[in-house]
């Protein structure tokens, strides 16, 4: 089964920002792959429009066959590099590599031309660029295992589009949106196309100054991962990600808060501090804590959730010379806690970003005290627990 890297998704706005003739030259060596997907590369000419580019994007999203790595890798690198901060660097490197872009080339087109002529040079820029990147996805977990209640048909998508359209209209982003739903193994991808706030921009063309007004198009990507039971949201603002969290929870599972709100918990201390993160000396109510289960995934390998179960996970990993791989994203940790003066252990399970499961409701204050001191609670949380869910486990 081919693995997919979410960060390398060929976004339609990237394709739309590249001159069709240049895109055709780039894709021509792989035309047999696209022909197999029902797309004729030769249609990318000066008459190509949104229909052709949307179909091309759909072909690139199809999971039945592997996307040529050169295609996905180039589009990813080009998109990452073609930012204003890199303008001068791109121009200098393109000149040194004797790249001759077409007049009025955009940064994306300059970057793609550089890739086609000197891919190592563009890879170097990509590897060494200093601009910070925001995390591509925000992950919202739910308290249970993967639900069998998932249901979304064409009518449900139409209703979801209508709800989002009113939301975008209220924000003055223009009415209307389009949702492309792509079911993949263990995942459902939802690509949301919508407008943004109206823009006016000064122009300089043919020696004359002017102004152009337009409403830009934007794409957001929402993924429901049935394997980890998470909603993964790629959107521009925290408010927009929060709106998607609620709407997709409601339309996919019938409950706005199916995926609880903003992050409260993190498992980062386990990666950073190892067994030291289980220290209890400053919480007299707790005698000891051990890690009994740990689950994680690694970006680029979303088909597999890796779980370690042992009486003491850290001791077991040390004995077998195992370790948590760099880049792992921790999904769930289960702790066994022994309270002072008690013989029976209690169970605590954390699932970022906001779920804590524990055996007894009265355990909450003591557990919160320990979680705060070990930094399992995100430091910038607002006071109170309005945006998190504590789930009382049965048994």
Short précis:
Helix content is 33%, strand content 23%.
Please mark out the parts with pLDDT under 50 across 5 or more consecutive residues, or reply none.
1-8, 130-135, 381-395
Order of helices and strands: HHHHHHHHEHEEEEEEHHEEHEEEHE
Quote the beta fraction.
Answer: 15-25%
Radius of gyration, taken over Cα atoms and rounded to an integer in Å:
25 Å
Largest sheet: 6 strands, mixed
Number of strands: 13
Order of the strands making up the biggest sheet:
9-8-10-11-12-13
Structural class call reads: alpha+beta
Q: Residue-averaged pLDDT, rounded?
A: 81
Distance between the amino and carboxyl termini: 39 Å
Structure description:
By secondary structure, the chain is an alpha+beta fold. It has three domains: 123 residues, no CATH class; 116 residues, no CATH class; 125 residues, no CATH class. It is 33% helix and 23% strand. The protein has 13 helices and 13 strands. A six-stranded mixed β-sheet has the order 9-8-10-11-12-13. The protein has a five-stranded antiparallel β-sheet with strand order 1-7-6-3-2, with helices on one face. It is elongated, with a radius of gyration of 25 Å.
């Amino acid at each position: 089964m081919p693995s997919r890297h979410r960060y390398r998704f060929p976004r339609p706005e990237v394709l739309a920002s590249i001159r069709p003739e240049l895109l055709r030259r780039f894709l021509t060596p792989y035309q047999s792959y696209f022909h197999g997907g029902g797309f004729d590369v030769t249609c990318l000419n000066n008459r190509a429009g949104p229909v052709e580019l949307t179909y091309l994007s759909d072909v690139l999203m199809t999971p039945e066959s592997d996307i040529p790595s050169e295609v996905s890798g180039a589009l990813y690198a080009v998109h990452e590099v073609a930012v204003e901060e890199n303008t001068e660097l791109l121009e200098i490197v393109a000149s040194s590599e004797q790249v001759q872009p077409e007049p009025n080339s955009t940064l994306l087109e300059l970057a793609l031309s550089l890739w086609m002529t000197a891919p190592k040079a563009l890879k170097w820029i990509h590897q060494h660029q200093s601009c910070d990147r925001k995390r591509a996805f925000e992950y919202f977990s739910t308290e249970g295992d993967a639900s069998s209640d998932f249901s979304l048909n064409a009518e449900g998508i139409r209703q979801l589009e209508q709800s989002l359209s009113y939301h975008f209209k209220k924000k003055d982003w223009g009415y209307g949106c389009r949702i492309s739903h792509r079911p993949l193994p263990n995942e459902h991808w939802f690509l949301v196309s919508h407008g943004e706030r109206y823009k006016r921009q000064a122009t300089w063309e043919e020696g004359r100054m002017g102004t152009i007004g337009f409403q830009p198009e934007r794409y957001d990507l929402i993924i429901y991962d049935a394997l980890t039971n998470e909603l993964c949201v790629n959107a521009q603002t925290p408010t927009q990600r929060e709106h998607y969290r609620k709407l997709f929870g409601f339309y996919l599972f019938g409950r706005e808060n199916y995926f609880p709100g903003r992050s409260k918990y993190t498992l980062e201390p386990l990666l950073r501090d190892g067994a030291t993160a289980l220290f209890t000396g400053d919480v007299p109510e707790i005698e000891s804590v051990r890690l009994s289960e740990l689950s994680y995934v690694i970006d680029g390998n979303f088909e597999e959730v890796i779980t370690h179960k042992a009486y003491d996970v850290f001791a077991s990993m040390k004995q077998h010379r195992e370790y948590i791989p760099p880049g792992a994203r921790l999904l769930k940790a289960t702790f066994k806690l022994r309270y002072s003066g008690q013989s029976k252990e209690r169970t605590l399970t954390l699932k970022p970003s906001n779920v804590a499961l524990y055996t007894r409701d009265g355990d909450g204050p003591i557990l919160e005290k320990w979680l705060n001191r070990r930094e399992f609670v995100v430091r910038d949380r607002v006071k109170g627990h309005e945006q998190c869910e504590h789930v009382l486990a049965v048994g």
